[in-house]
């Protein structure tokens, strides 16, 4: 029916009624994976923190029964330097996400590890899976945070300075195209990883910028 159609773009099929209903049912029945892995991270500025997460295998195992029940499937492929995650429904409708991969180097183990990391985030994002703890960006801001009896502390040094944050935001605001976006994002993800964490002001600006760049140009 005409009212079920949306504007065609590269991230979803022309009609999404059936897959939307299936995804809603999937999320209602999904048993979130247990966060059984724990990592201790030392920041480049000397701080440190811990977080728990579910690895990719645990996420896939947790999602598989509900995916099958709702006629959904997830496939992930690498093409033209991007990780493409496709959520498909038996109706033929689909959602898709694309994530730019880091530049490939001769250190294939490190590159493979980065791909696995990004596959987990993309897989969870497209399905609505919660695979790691949320500290409300306190660590990125250099604060001490306690979450359900788990204390996360820094050593007194912030993960990034206010000057770095303002510089990163300024550079992102000046971006006018997708290559420029990825240039700025990759720069800060390498120089100051914490500044790109979900919840930081730079992250929010980057998300807004990415959305504006993906919008079709007005005719």
List keywords for this structure.
two-stranded antiparallel sheet; disordered N terminus; alpha+beta; 19% strand; single chain; 219 residues
Describe the structure.
The chain is built from 6 helices and 7 strands; from the N terminus they run αββαβββαββααα. By secondary structure, the chain is of the alpha+beta class. The strands form 3 sheets. A 3-stranded antiparallel β-sheet has the order 3-4-5. A two-stranded antiparallel sheet has the order 1-2. A two-stranded antiparallel ribbon has the order 6-7.
Quick recap:
The protein is an alpha+beta fold. The protein has helices spanning 17-29, 56-69, 108-127, 162-173, 178-191, 201-214; strands at 37-42, 48-53, 72-79, 82-89, 94-100, 145-147, 150-152. It contains six helices and seven strands; from the N terminus they run H-E-E-H-E-E-E-H-E-E-H-H-H.
Would you count the extended β strands for me? 7
Q: DSSP helix count?
A: 6
Helix content: 25-40%
Major sheet: order of its strands?
3-4-5
End-to-end Cα distance, whole Å, is 27 Å
Strand content bin: 15-25%
Mean pLDDT: 79
Order of helices and strands: HEEHEEEHEEHHH
Unreliable runs: 1-8, 136-158
What structural class is derived from the secondary structure elements? alpha+beta
Biggest sheet record: 3 strands, antiparallel
Give the overall form.
globular
Radius of gyration, CA atoms, in whole angstroms: 19 Å
């Amino acid at each position: 029916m005409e009212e079920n159609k949306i504007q065609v773009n590269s991230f979803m099929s022309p009609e999404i009624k059936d897959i939307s209903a299936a995804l809603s049912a999937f999320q209602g029945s999904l048993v979130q994976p247990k966060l059984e892995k724990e990592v201790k991270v030392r920041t480049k500025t000397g701080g440190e923190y811990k977080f728990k997460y579910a690895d990719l295998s645990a996420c896939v195992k947790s999602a598989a029964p509900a995916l099958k029940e709702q006629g959904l499937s997830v496939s992930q492929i690498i093409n033209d330097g991007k990780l493409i995650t496709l959520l498909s429904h038996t109706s033929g409708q689909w959602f898709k996400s694309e994530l730019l991969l880091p530049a490939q180097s001769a250190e294939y183990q490190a590159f493979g590890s980065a791909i696995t990391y990004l596959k987990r985030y993309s897989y969870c994002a497209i399905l609505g899976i919660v695979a790691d703890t949320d500290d409300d960006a306190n660590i990125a801001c250099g604060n001490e945070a306690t979450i359900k009896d788990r204390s996360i502390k820094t050593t007194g040094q912030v993960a990034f300075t206010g000057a770095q944050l303002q510089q990163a935001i300024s550079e992102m605001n000046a971006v006018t195209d997708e290559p420029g976006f990825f240039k700025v994002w990759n720069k800060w993800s390498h120089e100051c990883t914490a500044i790109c964490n979900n919840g930081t002001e730079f992250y929010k600006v980057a998300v807004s910028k990415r959305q504006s760049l993906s919008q079709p140009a007005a005719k």
